[in-house]
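Run: sequence + DI6 -> complex structure.
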Amino acid sequence: MTQPDPPRPTRLWRNARLATLATTRTGLGLVGQGAVLVGGEHILYAGPESEMPALRDAGSNIEVIDCEGRWITPGLIDCHTHLVHAGNRAKEFEMRLRGATYEEIARAGGGILSTVRDTRAAQPEELQRQSLRRLDALIAEGVTTLEIKSGYGLDFDTERKMLRVARELAGRRPITIRTTFLGAHALPPEASGDKDAYIDQVTRTMLPALAHEGLIDAVDAFCEDIAFSPEQVSRVFSAATALGLPVKLHADQLSNLNGAALAARYNALSADHLEHADEAGVRAMAAAGTVAVLLPGAFYFLREKNLPPIDLLRRHAVPIALATDCNPGTSPLTSLLLALNMAATEFRLTVDECIAGVTREAARALGIADRTGTLEAGKQADLAIWDIDDPAELVYRIGFNPLFARIWRGR
Ligand code: DI6
Ligand code: FE
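>> structure
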């Protein structure tokens, strides 16, 4: 079998400092005088300029960009969002300021269900319009890959509408979108309190049909007293696994229901939140290779007190990713850079952990580490170029965007 010709070099970014995040290097994989050579959509070389292979054709057709010493990182990856939804919950925010808790509002029919009402009522065009505004805010900070969950439909038609709108965003902007089916997010009002019957509908009707339509990259669930039990989540995960779909879980956010261990039992890509996870859960995640996705925006907005078990995650070498959790109820956050600062300030993550958490480890949490998340030959040419003097500035600043340029698949 003949190998296809390697792609021809098309663009070269030179005179740059690189944070490659390459696993073959330590820390951020820093390169002082670096270059990134791209052929079409893919990286051909990323490393010291002095070691770059000689260009064929004397570089005649290659566009050369002098970065003037700026920093290049992999394009950022937001691996946990509920970006597609209609309306907002500013009124509930005011109720919480007057003393109501998130759980109280949810039990009284507000919370997730109020966003379900708005999302069901919105035409697809309107849902797209509202979602694009949030998407543009993330793109402006160098995000090149984004996960989007359903879960504000809770009926077949609206879950499908959300997933379709999510997928269609990729046609409207230069970005990679990964869609996650979160049918088991909350119990819809028409289920009249029967969670088991609703889970039947999720596993027997919604999931197979939406998977058949090709709308699902992964399956998520909310494991919590106000949502679904571990046993109900298991049924969702078994159905997903039978369809060949990877799973992930909103685990141990508000209480410890052993969600981390449950996720690990199904070889989940990630277990997310984890404020109440214990050592048994962390051990299970380590053994299964499940990524811990930490969501400092939700921790901040709910004024949580329980920190995720950072030291246990480190001790057991569980990979840590970070995301915005962009959603109208617990994390109305559309800045991944701010999430970095929060993760450092609230969780005491190091700068290296923060930056790896929105690049290499976030790619791993989405199961696409072979395609993006680092500056390495063979990966997609997803780059962020920054006007900074040190990578720590990406974590240190609050509400300042130093992005200089953003490249998605070589463009
Ligand atoms: N956990 C969360 O933090 C969000 N969903 C979830 O499962 C909250 C979603 C919302 O309140 O609208
Ligand atoms: Fe979430």
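>> summary
The CA atoms of residues 2 and 373 lie 29 Å apart. The chain has a mean pLDDT of 96.
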